[in-house]
Amino acid sequence: MKRALAFFLALLVLCFVLPAAGEPAAEDADTLRAFLQEHYGLSVRMGSECYDYALMDYEFKITPEGNTPFQKLLAGNDRFAPLLRLLDDAFSVYPPEFFSRFRTSKYPDGLLILLVDGIENEGVTYGGVETTGNGLLEIILSRTGVDRHTIHHELYHAMEVRILAENKRAFDKWRTLNPRGFSYSQKNSALIGEDQFAEPDDWFAREYSKTFEEEDRATVFEDIMTKDEAWWSTRPHLQKKAEFLLEKISAVFGDLFAGE
Ligand SMILES: [Zn+2]
User: Fold this and answer.
1) How far is the CA of 215 from the centre of ligand 1 (A)?
2) How confident is the model over 158-217, as pLDDT tens digits?
3) How far is the CA of 149 from the centre of ligand 1 (A)?
4) Cα 208 to the center of its chain, rounded Å
5) How far is the CA of 233 from the centre of ligand 1 (A)?
6) Around Cβ 127, how many Cβ atoms within 10 Å?
7) pLDDT digit string, tens, across residues 62-109
8) Residue 193's CB: how many other CB atoms inside 10 A?
9) CA distance 223 to 228
10) Which of 1, 138, 179, 209 lies in disulfide reach of 219, CB 3.0 to 4.6 Å?
């Protein structure tokens, strides 16, 4: 009888312990943030906390979406929980040492991720990269409209800052990978809506890739992180761009696919 009771108690204890050891509550943004910071070795700020980082010369304006900063503060950070989960989802495919490579003498604090309600920058923008902070390399992401592609895309822009800091001529030969006579439109706002996501041909990942060479590289990188071998095998020109990019990336960040 005593043994049965002990077993019952043990079971009861187990029942209480197990849920606590499982996933954090679905909406607990602060727990998710603490995990991301610890696990990946970077910093995350959310909502009204980001106003401190919106410097005078900031390229992006943070949209309060009709609520005052005080109201946002009262509301807490839990509205960012889905975006934090998406960050973890996208970051989890990088090798463990990857994020530490953002820490340098110029950027001793490494990567800072700002999660805001909205961004204004010549119309709709879901993300961006800033390097004007005090020793910080900042990725800013909007709470809505961001998917896994956006995260890889902005991460690439941040990587390029690091690559160019090591070798400012790293991308001098990039344009030789384009068709003869091609030149970038140099206009972000020329593309509206879904057109920017159309896959034009084997030379460019998307219509948007034709705006600036930095965007070309960032969209190729999205595909490096998300498309499979069958997809790449039918795109020999794009594959050359991917190989060029991976060579520059590995010089600073190591082999992205070493663990596979
Ligand atoms: Zn971009």
Assistant:
1) 5
2) 999 999 989 999 999 999 999 999 999 987 655 555 566 666 678 999 888 999 999 999
3) 11
4) 18
5) 25
6) 21
7) 655 545 666 656 667 888 999 999 999 999 999 988 999 998 887 788
8) 7
9) 9
10) 209
d(CA 78, CA 106) in angstroms, rounded, equals 33
- How long a stretch of residues is the chain? 260
**Chain position carrying tokens 């009204």:** 48
Q: Report CA(206)–ligand 1 centroid distance (Å).
A: 12
Instruction: Report the 10 Å Cβ neighbour count for 30.
Output: 15
CA of 157 to the centre of ligand 1 (A): 7
Query: What separation in Å is there between the alpha carbon of 209 and the centre of ligand 1?
Result: 9
Please tell me the distance from the alpha carbon of residue 195 to that of residue 90, in angstroms, as a whole number: 25
Q: What is the pTM of this model?
A: 0.81
Distance of alpha carbon 120 from alpha carbon 153, whole angstroms: 18
In the structure encoding, which two tokens stand for residue 185, read together?
């439109």
Q: Is the pLDDT of residue 23 over 50?
A: yes
Instruction: Check residue 228 and give its pLDDT.
Output: 93
CA of 66 to the centre of ligand 1 (A): 27
Per-domain residue ranges of the chain: 26-147, 167-254
If you measure from the C-alpha of residue 73 to the centroid of ligand 1, how many angstroms do you get, rounded to a whole number? 30
How remote is the CA of residue 8 from the centroid of ligand 1, in Å? 58
Site of tokens 């910080």:
136
Q: In Å, how far from its chain's centre is CA 39?
A: 15
For residue 43, what are the β-bridge partners?
112
Q: Residue 179 in 3-state DSSP? A: coil
Between CA 169 and CA 30 the distance in angstroms is: 41
